[in-house]
Amino acid sequence: MRKRSVKKRLIELLGCIVLTSLLIGVASADGVTVSADVHPGTISLDEVAHVSVGIKTTYSATAFPVDVVLVIDCSGSMERYGTIIFGPEEVNLTTSYKKIGEFSLSEESDVEIMLQIPVDIYRSRDIFFAYLKKKGRSWQSSRKSGYSTVGWNDIQPGTYEVYAKLRYSNGERGRIFAVELPPERIESAKDAACAFVDMLGDDDRAGVVKFHSRGWSYEPYCKLVQPLESNKNAVKNVIRNTLRASGGTPMGEGLDRALDHLESHHARENAVKAIIMLTDGWWNMGCNPIEQAHRAKGDGIPIYTIGWGGVNESALREIADISGGKFYKAATGDDLRDIYEEIAIEISNIGAKNATLNVELSRYVEYAGNANPKPEVYGRNLTWNLGTLYANDTTYVSFDVRPEVKGFIPINTNSSVLTYFSYEYDHDELKEEEVPVVHVNVVSSARPVAILTANPDSGDVGEPIFFDASQSYDPDGYIVRYIWNFDSFSGSIAAFNYSFNESGAYQVNLTVVDNDGLDNSTTVTVNINESHHGRVSRNLTVLNMSISADKERIKIGQPVSISGNVTLNNTVNTNVSIEIHINGEEIANRSENIGGGQVTINISATWVPMTSGKHRISLHVYELAEQGRLWIPPVNDPVIEREVLIERIS
User: What share of the chain in percent tops pLDDT 90?
Assistant: First the structure.
C-alpha cells in the first residue's frame, strides 16, 4: 500500500485535536495570532520593563507546496561501508604500531577501518598500515595498507582492538578514525533519499543534483540529473539508476547547480524552496560552499546539511546556519531515514513565509535593549525579519523599554503589526495581524528594601528557627505585605518561629510589597540536620497551641493581657514548661508535672511595652528532661503581632 505523505498525516492528526491557545487573550484558529505581555506590570521611573511578543502559527490544510532539491555526494568515499559502529574520532598516528580503538561484533561481518585525512587529499607519503587483534586472545588479522580505508572479510563475533601506524614519518599524522560495516554508503543514501521522496505531498516536487569528479575534473560530473518533478516514481528511478561513486568532493559545485535550478523559472514562486545536501567528506575542489550558503541566504533558500562519516562538521554546520537550515549527523542508514523524515516534516509544515514584525514604541517609552533576537532599530520602530513560521509552533520576541513619564502608559502603538505571506490554495496572500497594545504602571517611588535574617541559620529537625523581616523598609512609603515562600509555610507576618520536620537545605524566600505596589525579594538559606539525641521530645506531642492578647494597637506603657493554652498528648509522667516570649525574650513561664494521656495547660501574663513599633508575641512548650529542654513536635510555635504607638500613657 502506498505510504501516506507527511503533510496528509499531519492534517489527519491535527484534525482530531482541538488546539487551545496558551497565549492570554488569543483565540485558536487556522493562521497566525499575536499576543503581547509585559513584566513586571508596575515599575519605577528609573527601571525597565520586559516586553514579550508571542506569534503562534496554527496548521492549515492549504500549507505551502514544496520545491526541494536533493544534493547527493557521489565521491569515491561513498563506496565505503556506511554503518559506523565506532567513531568518528580524531587520532594521531606515528611510525610505530599503537592501539587506536576497539569495537565489538555480535555476528560475523565484513569490517572496514577508516583513517581519513581531514582535507581528504592524499599523497603517497600518507599510506598507513593497520591490523585487528582479538581482545584477550593471540589471534591477529592480516596487516593491510591504504590511504584512507582498509578492510577485512568475514570477521567473527567478538571484541577487537585496532592497531595502526604510518609508513613514512612525513605522512599526515592527524586522522579521523571510524569502524564501519556494510552496506555501502551510496546504497543507503539512495534508499533514504527515495524514502524522503515518498514522504512529500501530492503538490510537492523534488529534484536531484549529484556532485563528484574524475581525477581533478569535476565540471561534467556536477550536474542536475533530475529537474523538479512531482512524479515520485520518476524521481526515485533517477536516484536508484544514475548515482555512482567516484572521485573527489566538489560540494560547492553541487550547491551551485541546485541554486541555479531553484532560482530559475522551473521553481514556483509560491513554493517553499529548500536544499538537502548529503556528504561524507570534505570540500576539496570546485567553488567554495560557504559562498554558496551566502547566496542561498540571499534567496531565502535554507540548506539542510547531513554529514556522514569523517566530515568537516564545522563547515557543514556553518553552511546550514548561514542559509537558515539545520545540520544533522548520521552514523547508519537508519539514521539517514530518520533525518530525511524530520526534514520532510519541517519543510512540509510551514504556515507562513517572509514574516516581519514591526513594533512602534509609544512616545512615553524608549528602547532599552536586552532584545532576543536583536531587531533593526529605526527611531521608535523595532523591526524583526522572522522569515519562515512553522505550523503549530510559537515564535517569541522580547525586549526592554524604559519609561519617560509616570502613570499607566502604553508601551507600543496600534500601528504595531506582523506581516506575512500565507498560501491560499493556489497563490500567496499578504496578511497582517495587529500586535496588542500593552501598558505598564509607572510610579515615581523607589522599590522597597527586603531584609531577612534567620536565627540561627542552621539547626536540627524540630528546633524553631526565628525568621525576622521586620527591618525591611520602603524609602518613600511603607511595607503593606510580606509574602513568604518556603517549605509548606504561607503567611503575611513580619517575623515568626518555624520548625522544619525534615532535614535538608531550605531556601527561604521573602517578597515585600510597598504601598505603591512595588516589590522586592530576598532569600536566606537554612540548613536543617537530623535531630540529635535529646533535642526533640519522644514522649509528648502537641495537639493544639494558641495565644491571644486583649488589645490590637497599644500605647507605650499601656498594660497588655496575654493568654495562651497548649493541649498535649503524653505517654509518661514528665515535666513541661510553657513560655510566653516577646520578640524572642521570655517574659513568663509555667512548669507542670503531667501524667499520661491528654492534658491542657493554660498560661497568662501581663506585658507593659516600653518601645514603639511591631512586637512579636509567641508561645513555646518544652519537655524538661534529663537531657535538657526538649522541643515538642509537631505544631510550630504560634506567633501574633501587636503595634505599639509612640504616645506614652501618663
Answer: 48
HSE-CB at 1 with a 13 A cutoff on CA atoms is 2
Report, as ranges of residue numbers, the positions in the chain whose pLDDT lies below 50: 1-29, 61, 533-534, 648-650
Full DSSP string of 291-346: HHHHHHHHHT--EEEEEESS--HHHHHHHHHHHT--EEEESSHHHHHHHHHHHHHH
What is the per-residue burial (b if ≥16 Cβ within 10 Å, else e) of 366-400?
A: ebbeebeeebeeeeebbebebebbbbeeebebebb
Domain positions in the chain are: 6-63+351-443, 67-299, 453-529, 540-648
**Could you confirm whether domain 540-648 is CATH 3.30.750.24?**
no
Rounded to whole angstroms, how far apart are CA atoms 257 and 358?
A: 36
Distances 407 to 242, 380, 411 between C-alpha atoms, Å: 71, 20, 12
User: How far is residue 128's CA from residue 95's CA, in Å, rounded to a whole number?
Assistant: 9
**C-alpha span between 528 and 505 (Å, rounded):** 6
* DSSP-assigned beta bridge partners for residue 24: none
CATH superfamily of 453-529: Immunoglobulins (2.60.40.10)
Residue 580 parent element (H or E): strand 574-582
| Predicted local confidence at residue 29, as pLDDT | 39
123 Cβ neighbours under 8 A, 6+ residues apart:
none
Distance CA 587, CA 578 (A): 11
pLDDT at 636 (0 to 100) = 65
- In this prediction, what percent of the chain has a pLDDT beyond 70? 91
Q: At 565, which amino acid appears?
A: N
